[in-house]
Structure formats: C-alpha cells, structure tokens
C-alpha cells in the first residue's frame, strides 16, 4: 500500500472528478510501457520524463442524433488546447465499428495546466453538451506514470490510413488482473522488438483495481495480425488474457480511426 496525494484531474474533453482533495491510501498502480523500438525508445525517452505529467484516455459515446454536435465540440476542445501552455498535446479518435464512440488521449504538464484548461470556454461548452448528448457519462482512464517513458511523434492532422490503432479496456477480478500484469511484463518488451509496432502500452488504471488497459499502434494491420498469430509469447499472452476475462477478448477491443492530433504527442498509450 502506498499513500499518495489525491488530485482533481479534469479530462480535456469533460470535467471528471477522479479523487478528493485530501490524502488517501490506495494500492500503488503499475504501468508497463513500450514504444517503437528499444533503441529509439532509449534515445527519445528523455522527451517525456516529467513525473508531474497527467495522462488520460477518455471515452465518449454520443446519442446518434447528437453525434455531429459531440464531434464538433470535441474538435473545438482539441484545437483550442493548441494555445494552452501546459497542454503537451492531445489526440481524438473515432471507433471504426461504432461511429458514435469517441476516444481522446491527452497530456498535461501538471495540475496547474489542468486547472487552466478547465476554465476555457470550449471546455465549458462541451460540458453543457455532454449533459444531454451522451448515452452515459464520459469515462476516464488515468495513468500514474510510464515505467519506460513514451516517445513523442510529430504533429499531424491525421494518422496514416494504413495504421492500426487498438484500445483494449478490460474489466476483471483483481487477482486475475495481477496475473495479467505479470504476463504483460514479459509481453511488452517482446512486442517492442517488432519493427512494425509503433507503440505498445499496457497499464492499470488509477483508483480502479479491476481495470486494465492496452493501447497499441502498428504500421499496418497485416503486420499486427501476422505477429499475433506466429509469435509464441503473444499466443501465450492471449490465452492468459482470455482465461482472465468473463467475455470474449474482442468484446473489450476498440479499433480506432484518428481524427486529429495536436502538438508533439506521444503514442496513444
């Protein structure tokens, strides 16, 4: 057990109160991270060694009749944050198989940067829209830190259409999650060696002992599929994950299309 100072973290797309303003005791979160290649990772790790950085993945499901309104509001937030000094960058995605589902990934330099963002007009406008336009309240998956750091990628308006980006948001018993984390401690460096992998990250979620997230980016879908079917450790990892979940693995996965990326930005994990 580890005592950590709770903070109010507001996701760039919606204010989500994730903890109280007093100190509390909670289990230390573990995060496993891997990037383009081990050599490139070691060279660029210095770019993202800020222990105060707040990194969040957010999930938003719009009601069908409000899809465009939600998307436009999210775009305004992403573009507006370009001028925020403490916003390192953020990315906006659509689920390829559910056009009403959006995911965002953001990085803030510290709590002060989050507080500044929270008071911007485009953020306040989105909060109002979210009250009536979403199927359920937005969800936030907060990372404590990245053990191996993350690699920045250059700014661009859209991702390469051939890239495969997948987010897995898993729910399982804590005992099973611990077993999965142990397996991914072997799997992460294994995937890192594959040159076709842009980014591969796995982490537990702050304050949620039953959740586990995996985010991966590949140069092409073909490379990813081939690796997952012939690599022995990947096959073993798939079996461990399947045994730990109550639903089939595909039910937890979201294949994404990138809508926008602002500033220099680390991979989506």
UniProtKB/TrEMBL annotation:
InterPro entries: ABM_dom, AI-2_Isomerase_LsrG, Dimeric_a/b-barrel. This is ABM domain-containing protein. Pfam families: ABM. PROSITE patterns: ABM, PROKAR_LIPOPROTEIN. Gene3D superfamilies: 3.30.70.100. It comes from Putridiphycobacter roseus. Coiled coil: none annotated. Residues 54-143 form the ABM domain. One of its GO terms (molecular function) is catalytic activity.
């Amino acid at each position: 057990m580890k005592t950590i100072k709770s903070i109010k973290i507001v996701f760039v797309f919606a204010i989500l109160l994730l903890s109280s303003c007093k100190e509390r005791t909670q289990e230390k979160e573990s995060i496993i991270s891997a990037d383009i290649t081990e050599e490139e990772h070691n060279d660029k790790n210095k770019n993202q060694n800020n222990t105060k950085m707040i990194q969040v993945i957010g999930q938003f499901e719009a009601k069908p009749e409000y899809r465009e309104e939600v998307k436009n509001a999210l775009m305004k937030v992403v573009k507006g944050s370009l001028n925020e000094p403490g916003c390192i960058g953020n990315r906006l995605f659509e689920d390829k198989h559910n056009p009403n589902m959006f995911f965002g990934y953001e990085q803030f330099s510290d709590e002060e940067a989050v507080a500044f963002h929270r008071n911007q007009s485009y953020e306040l406008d989105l909060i109002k829209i979210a009250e009536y336009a979403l199927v359920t309240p937005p969800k936030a998956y907060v990372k404590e830190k990245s053990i191996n750091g993350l690699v920045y990628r250059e700014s661009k308006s859209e991702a390469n259409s051939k890239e495969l980006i997948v987010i897995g948001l898993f729910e399982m018993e804590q005992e099973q999650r611990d077993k999965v984390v142990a397996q991914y401690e072997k799997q992460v460096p294994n995937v890192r060696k594959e040159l076709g992998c842009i980014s591969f990250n796995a982490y537990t979620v702050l304050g949620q002992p039953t959740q586990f997230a995996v985010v991966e980016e590949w140069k092409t879908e073909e490379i990813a599929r081939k690796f997952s079917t012939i690599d022995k450790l990947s096959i073993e990892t798939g079996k461990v994950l399947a045994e730990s979940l109550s639903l089939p693995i595909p039910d937890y996965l979201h294949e994404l299309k990138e809508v926008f990326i602002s500033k220099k930005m680390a991979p989506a994990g």
